[in-house]
Amino acid sequence: MTDVTILPTPRSWPAILLPGKDAADPTDLEAAMAAGAFAGLRLALRDLGATGTTAAIGASGLRGRGGAGFSSADKWRAASATPASSRVVVANGYGADPSSATDRVLMERNPYAIIEGLAIAAFAIGADEAIIAVRADAGATIRILKTAVGAAQDAGFVGLDAFGPGHHLDLSVRTVQGAYLLGEETILLKALEGKRGQPEQRPPHPATRGLRGLPTVVHNVQTLATIPWIVVNGPEAFARIGAAECPGTILVQVRGPEASGVAEIPLGTSLRDVAALAGTPTGARKLKAVLVGGPSGGILPPDALDVPYTFAALRAAGAHIGSGSVIVADDRACIVDLARVLTRYCADEACGKTIPCRIGTRRLSEIGDRLAAGTSRAGDLDLLTDLAADIVGSALCDHERLTTLPLVSGMRYFRAELDEHLERGSCPAGVCHPIAMAASATH
Ligand SMILES: Cc1cc2nc3c(=O)[nH]c(=O)nc-3n(C[C@H](O)[C@H](O)[C@H](O)COP(=O)(O)O)c2cc1C
Ligand code: SF4
Questions:
Q1: Is 387 part of any domain?
Q2: Whether pTM exceeds 0.90
Q3: Rounded CA gap, 336 and 76, in Å?
């Protein structure tokens, strides 16, 4: 099992995703069942039926944990309503952001919750195929998932006649390998079809036309692992946890001066409290910024940290939940340098299919490079604003919009520091080397 620290949290809410199974063998089905595994699937099959199960998930207010926060039940309804000979559910366990271990930790510590969530979703939408998609280089994770799938199959929870005579669920663990973008759902589906990984025009969305043209519900593994808890405890109990508009818990990967690890928190927790799980800079060091959402995340200053950790609130603040990554930076960090490095990474990862993204993200990255090198042109910040506005909404996938976040949030919250680089050619933090050297050479 991967050695990732699970950070302690002040627990006044039920642990849904990581319910303290650390010591046990996560593939031990008997132990998992003693702790309640597959009780939700039994309830769904026996009491709720497909429509009742979808209604329960709708009433719970569950939103997908994969980043966009889309209503899970709406996807299920779209897939169920599409006439098809067969339907598919895909667990997105790709974990695109290499700096976030949230999904890996879940897959390794609670695989049966994901398998059970997949089975419940498949039953609800009438799917006979389910896939757990995971990175090919995640050896330990793959072994755990395959062992757990085998045990669930032997026990009859998935496989032949899993949902009654003639109602099968073929569940497999499939490995995919590619770049950052492969976590995006239409690219992931292409990879599962063995095709080149580039996004597809939407609509149609995968829920109506996905894998091999079949209605396909793609969910992040955390979304799926939440479903059994909702079915067992009821949508009302779930709706009482976390934020009203996006209830439940979510995994975050926090990094800071005192700690680094994964924690399960209720959605709606203030970003300040989430960041504090990693400790706050002390002594001579001051908190300067918190990077929220992974490589394409926003950079928020200390006075913006009271924002609740929800999809909508973070988006309004210029960040996003993304990979669940929350990184605390102290006053040694240079915002221009951070934004530049993140933008370069995202521009390099753009697949190139959409011209505004292919060219626009490159131009954005060049603006960041010029700011850091002290070679900015007059009007660079206006160009940055125009570019960010122009490329948003012209893309095939959300990567383009998200790539603007580091520089745009940097400009929104740390304008004085950007102006120092632009107008005076100096880096207050002394990080952007050509500028720092030029400044010290004059003294
Ligand atoms: C560039 C990019 C990378 C993404 N990477 C992931 C990922 O690694 N894992 C994931 O679950 N969703 C990722 N997503 C979101 C998926 O496209 C999709 O919205 C999600 O898997 C749906 O699951 P949900 O309904 O549980 O949110 C990514 C999106 C984009 C634009
Ligand atoms: S928006 Fe960017 S990453 Fe997405 S399809 Fe277009 S070029 Fe590729």
A1: yes
A2: yes
A3: 42
